[in-house]
Amino acid sequence: MKLLRVLITASFALLLAGQALAQSLIRDTEIEETLREFGDPIIRAAGLNPKSVDIYIVNDPSLNAFVTRGQKVFFHTGILVEFETPNQLKGVMAHEVGHIASGHLARSSETQRSAYGTFLVAAGIGLAAILAGEGQAGAAILGSSQQFAVLDVLRYSRINESSADQAGANYLEISGQSGRGLIEFFEKFRYQEVMSEQGRFPYFRSHPLSSARIDNLREVVDESPYRDEIDSPEDIRRMQIMQAKLRGFIDPPQTTFTKFPSSDQSEAARLARAVAHFRAANLKEGLVSVDSLIEEFPDNPYYHELRGEILYKSGKARLAQPSLRNAIKLKSDAPLLKQALAQSLIDENSTDGIIEAVDLLKDVLQAEPENGYSWYLLSQAYGYQNKKGLAQYAVAEQAYARGDLRRATSFAARAMEQIPRDTPQYRRANDIVVISDAQLAQDSKRR
Ligand SMILES: [Zn+2]
Q1: Which helix (H) or strand (E) covers residue 33, if one does?
Q2: Distance of CA 361 to the CA centre of its chain
């Protein structure tokens, strides 16, 4: 039980918890930041508001990226580790944003739903598993079925693909970047074209390559004044760090040690090894590696975070706290860092610690109201404080966030019997009851 608790939560928990769920979302502040840094200029160039376009990371080794309705872009970890340059990643990002901005999803709704075929089903199974597994899987999960209720993965159409290529190339030009990365990426996987559809990577099932398609793209890209623009050293570093971190958490430790031998003293290699040592249950070596990174980059919040994470997941909640506090000091606007500290405080269960955890979690939920895992932690914290009504309210929010409306309305109703009427929590619990009941009634009519 202790081991399970230790494995729960924090950014990469699910990866460590085993292979039970084939597909799940993962959260990591640093990687999310990298994807935003790369993606936001492209999203803006497409005339969209970056705040309204969500980017998700799916823990899945297959090569894939896709968009769903609701302006959501998904990258599999399998594609993220495959990019050779930031420009290649940005190329795929631009293409996917092209689908969103061109309204391909909105248009291909209702009537074509049945034709979405196996890809939607496959994605649906994975995403459903996320929702079902939230209890065990913790923070790795975003846990909002509202996000996935509208899941509607784009179906392949030749016209949509080439228009997304053209739109993507255009956004890259507007944001002063080269489109060559996308062409390189396509060229690299050109061989997929001759394979049977089932043999291809998912991305090239939904995005078949053809000479004509690549030639058309090349024409636009070659005309751009930015065609020879190269990646900045900072972007290259960001991508290497992202890939090293993902590899460290996903690959078997031995694979990581082979790929990043100790002769390689680069920042990325030390990071990958730090993670791999920890995953190989070698806490001491893991700390040595991460400490060398902290010594060289004392202002990097993510090395402090990693140190805290390693300690926490090794069952040392109290020892993890100073590192997590350092991380928060260096990056005060990152909800997941606060969530990690709150988690370790709840584990320790001291009176003062629980008070602090409640404050931290309120901050997290202000920024991420649909963060089901933080609602879960908050319900625990209120439970320790014997605030039964508030604990039930937090459970209601958690259930609501992941779309379990029956549970949401039941806990919200119970909470309302205990919380004073003139509080925001009471009003919110009331809203949950009203909205959930209406939705449930509608659903039963439809059946
Ligand atoms: Zn596409």
Answers
A1: helix 29-45
A2: 19
Q: Where are the alpha helices (DSSP H) in 224-266?
A: 233-250, 253-259
Residue 230 to residues 18, 39, 85, 177, 179, Cα–Cα distance (Å) = 39, 16, 9, 8, 10
Cα–Cα nearest to 152, from 185, 105, 198, 188: 105
Q: How far is CA 389 from the centre of its chain?
A: 31
Count CB neighbours of 4 within 10 A.
Answer: 10
Q: Which residue has the tokens 């590696």?
A: 289
pTM, rounded to two decimals: 0.83
Give the pair of three-digit tokens for residue 160. Answer: 């949509």
Which sign, positive or negative, has the C-alpha torsion 258, 260, 264, 270?
negative
- Domain 2-222, CATH: 3.30.2010.10
Give every strand in the sheet of 24-26, ordered side by side: 24-26, 54-59, 72-76, 65-68
Question: Residue 273 Cα, ligand 1 centroid: separation in angstroms?
Answer: 35
Give distance in angstroms: CA of 98 to centre of ligand 1. 8
Q: Which run of H or E residues covers position 68?
A: strand 65-68
Write the CA distances from 187 to 36, 92, 125, 210, 304, integer angstroms: 25, 13, 31, 10, 39
Q: How far is the CA of 209 from the centre of ligand 1 (A)?
A: 10
- For the chain, residues classed under CATH 3.30.2010.10 are 2-222
List, for residues 408-434, the tens digit of each pLDDT value.
Answer: 999 999 999 999 999 999 999 999 999
Question: Residue 128 Cα, ligand 1 centroid: separation in angstroms?
Answer: 24
CA–centroid distance, residue 103 to ligand 1 (Å): 12
pLDDT per residue over 218-259, tens digit each? Answer: 999 999 999 999 999 999 999 999 999 999 998 999 999 999
d(CA 169, CA 186): 14
CA dist 343 and 328 (Å) reads 14
Phi-psi category of residue 157: left, alpha or beta, with phi > 0 → left and psi -120 to 50 → alpha: beta
